[in-house]
Each structure stands twice: as C-alpha cells, then as structure tokens.
Write a structure and sequence with these properties.
Blueprint lengths: L2 H20 L6 H19 L1 H8 L9 H4 L7 H6 L7 H14 L4 H16 L7 H5 L25 H15 L12 E4 L11 E6 L2 E5 L2
Length: 217
C-alpha cells in the first residue's frame, strides 16, 4: 500500500468520527458538516481521478487489460503460433486442460468460444468462482460432472504436446482479458454428436465447428 493511499485512508477515517465530536460544539451542525465536506473534497482532489480508480477497484494488473486494449486478436492457427509460450498458475493449467480435452480438434474460434463459457461461469453467481472449481464441479461422480472428461473414468493423458501448447495459448489470451463476444454470454455448450434434453430449454447463441452454445435467456 503506497504512502498516498495510507494518507487518504487516514484522513477519511479522521473526517467521519470527527462529525460526532464536533456536534457537541456551539457551531451549528450544518456548518460543521460543510467544513468537513470541504476538507474531504480537498483530500480527494489532491489524489486524482486515476489514482482513485485504482484505490476503489481491485487491481487486475496490466495483463488483464492487454487484449481489451488491442483489436488484433485473430482466430487463426498462424496467430496462435505467433504468440509466446503460455505460462501461468492453476487457472491456466485448468483452462488449458479443459480446452485440450474438450476442444483441441475444434477451430481456433471454437476453442476461444469454449474458453468463454468457462470464464462466463466463473463470473456467474450460479457457479464456483475459480476456473479450476468450475471445471471440476461434480467431479467424483461418474458422468455427473459438468465437463465429461473429468468424470468419464478414463485417465486424462496429454499425448499431443503441440495441440496442448496451442490451446494453452488460447487459455492465456482468454485469461488475460480477450473480449468475450463469440458466444453472447453462453453458459452451456455441447457437440453435434449429442442432443441433450436441456438444450431445448435454453436459447442457442452460436455455433463454431461442432460446438453449439446456449444461454438461459
């Protein structure tokens, strides 16, 4: 925490309790409050709008803004191959594995679309709030999980290293703030190889390759 932030917090903590103390003085409470508000405004003005925005909002880091600033994402293999090797922690590993087992044979756009669904679920109050928790929801009960590869009873072996490296780059770009515009807010998908009953209850929003995408309304 910077010295400027600490000074701002200290000043604000002083302003609020002081209202009660000054209320006991002879000066009318309206005048006292007006004086305090002037002081608070001076403090806030000295900080600046940009600094206040960082204090008021969780800091996402420059990597989370990279692709939001840039219109240069291309949904092509050539573009993905041109990106640096993906690195990261558990979120990257979980998302990359999900894309590998769920969509490695899909088009690049289809892979981004599957990543969108997973990240949309992370942001939804109806699902867990981490990438790994979303992907592993229901795992442990055979064929009762959200992503079949996690509970189909088969070992999850990554045998195609080049395919994994590509989907890991898709995962990295998605986690770094790629615009989620492909599926129009979808929270569900399935392939054309199946016809689940739940699909009839939801609105189809997109199709990429063999993947169909849905949202509730």
């Amino acid at each position: 925490m910077s010295r400027l932030t600490m000074a701002l917090i200290a000043a604000l903590l002083w302003v609020v309790p002081t209202v009660a103390a000054l209320a006991q003085n002879a000066v009318p409470i309206e005048a006292q409050l007006s004086s305090l508000l002037v002081q608070e405004k001076q403090i806030l003005n000295s900080v600046g709008v940009k600094r206040l925005s960082l204090i008021a909002k969780p800091y996402a880091g420059p990597e989370r803004l990279k692709w939001r600033r840039s219109p240069k994402i291309e949904y092509t293999t050539a573009f993905i191959n041109s990106q640096p090797r993906a690195t990261g922690g558990s979120d990257l590993r979980c998302l990359a594995e999900a894309l590998y087992f769920e969509a490695r044979g899909e088009t690049i756009k289809g892979q981004f679309a599957v990543a969108e669904v997973i990240l949309n679920r992370v942001d939804s109050a109806e699902y867990p709030n981490t990438v790994c928790a979303v992907i592993n929801q229901g795992t442990g009960r055979k064929f009762a999980c959200q992503f079949t590869y996690t509970c189909d009873g088969r070992p999850d072996r990554i045998t195609d290293k080049s395919a994994y490296e590509r989907v890991a780059k898709v995962a990295r770009i998605s986690l770094d703030g790629a615009p989620r515009e492909l599926t129009r807010g979808a929270l569900f998908y399935h392939t054309t190889a199946v016809n689940p009953s739940w699909a009839r209850k939801f609105k189809r929003t997109a199709r990429y390759g063999v993947h169909l995408f849905y949202r509730k309304s």
